[in-house]
């Protein structure tokens, strides 16, 4: 009996391996807290840039007509992210959505980690069907004794992030496991947020996780540093306590948040909805200079603000 072409003894010739084409994303929505808002990658005008803006700029440079919305707000707990950001983000119907949240919860003195995971799951379930690719993260952590106290909670949260990713086909960017992001030189003076170089590395990490060609080794350790003297360290600790730790504790004791009264960069409180921005020039400059995207009218006269094909 003649052998067919799929028989193992008569394998069909295979074409040589070719590099996979880099994915194309035409729109991106970022959801979360201060980490995604961009603290503390401070620009000269006093605004924050951060990894999400950096990623959006790079994606826009390779995709004409690219659209972006950052809905993240500093200080938000996962319940607030679920209640305030998930629905507006899903309504935009972006190709790419990033969700990072829950760390503000687990770093509080009292925290129900199970409830945090439930609200994170609720948010992911709202966002995943609205986009082509959902990205979750295991947030970075600065090395030090304070963070060690909360490590068991963080590890439980990040373990659940992995479960969510498997459930929804999401990507996970493991920043917590990256030793270089524990280096204090990648953190701002407040010791809670990454500085400009830290955010640049996170943007590169997400870029690579999306299957885009690497531009740098974001895991590369910083050069060895000379340890500051005792007096310098003591002065730095006192300044940190006065300018950052004290106010942070005060907000916790009074139930206030640094995000009170704030909305995401691309959320209209007047209209109660999120909106896209798009580069105002080519090549795209800093996101703060982008213009609001005007949706093209659909055949029935309404605006087509959903995901592009």
From TrEMBL:
<dbReference type="InterPro" id="IPR036514">
    <property type="entry name" value="SGNH_hydro_sf"/>
</dbReference>
<dbReference type="InterPro" id="IPR013830">
    <property type="entry name" value="SGNH_hydro"/>
</dbReference>
<dbReference type="Pfam" id="PF13472">
    <property type="entry name" value="Lipase_GDSL_2"/>
</dbReference>
<dbReference type="InterPro" id="IPR053140">
    <property type="entry name" value="GDSL_Rv0518-like"/>
</dbReference>
<feature type="region of interest" description="Disordered">
    <location>
        <begin position="1"/>
        <end position="20"/>
    </location>
</feature>
<protein>
    <submittedName>
        <fullName>SGNH/GDSL hydrolase family protein</fullName>
    </submittedName>
</protein>
<feature type="domain" description="SGNH hydrolase-type esterase">
    <location>
        <begin position="30"/>
        <end position="201"/>
    </location>
</feature>
<dbReference type="GO" id="GO:0016787">
    <property type="term" value="F:hydrolase activity"/>
</dbReference>
<keyword id="KW-0378">Hydrolase</keyword>
């Amino acid at each position: 009996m003649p052998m067919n072409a799929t028989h193992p003894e008569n394998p069909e010739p295979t074409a040589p391996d070719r590099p996979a084409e880099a994915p194309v994303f035409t729109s991106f929505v970022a959801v979360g807290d201060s980490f995604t808002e961009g603290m503390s990658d401070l620009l000269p005008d006093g605004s924050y840039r951060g990894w999400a803006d950096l990623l959006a700029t790079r994606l826009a440079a390779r995709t004409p007509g690219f659209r972006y919305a950052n809905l993240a707000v500093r200080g938000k707990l996962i319940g607030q992210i679920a209640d305030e950001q998930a629905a507006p983000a899903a309504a935009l119907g972006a190709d790419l959505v990033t969700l990072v949240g829950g760390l503000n919860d687990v770093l509080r003195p009292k925290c129900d980690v199970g409830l945090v995971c439930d609200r994170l799951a609720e948010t992911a379930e709202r966002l995943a069907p609205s986009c082509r690719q959902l990205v979750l993260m295991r947030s970075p952590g600065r090395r030090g004794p304070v963070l060690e106290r909360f490590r068991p909670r963080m590890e439980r949260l990040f373990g659940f992030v992995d479960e969510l990713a498997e459930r929804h086909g999401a990507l996970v960017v493991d920043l917590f496991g990256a030793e270089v992001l524990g280096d204090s030189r990648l953190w701002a003076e407040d010791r809670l947020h990454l500085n400009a170089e830290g955010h640049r590395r996170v943007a590169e990490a997400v870029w690579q996780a999306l299957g885009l060609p690497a531009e740098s080794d974001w895991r590369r350790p910083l050069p060895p540093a000379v340890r500051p003297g005792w007096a310098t360290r003591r002065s730095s600790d006192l300044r940190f306590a006065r300018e950052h730790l004290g106010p942070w504790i005060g907000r916790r004791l009074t139930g206030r948040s640094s995000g009170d009264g704030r909305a995401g960069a691309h959320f209209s409180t007047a209209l109660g909805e999120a909106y896209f921005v798009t580069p105002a020039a080519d090549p795209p400059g800093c996101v703060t200079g982008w213009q609001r995207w005007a949706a093209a009218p659909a055949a029935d006269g309404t605006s087509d603000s959903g995901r592009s094909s």
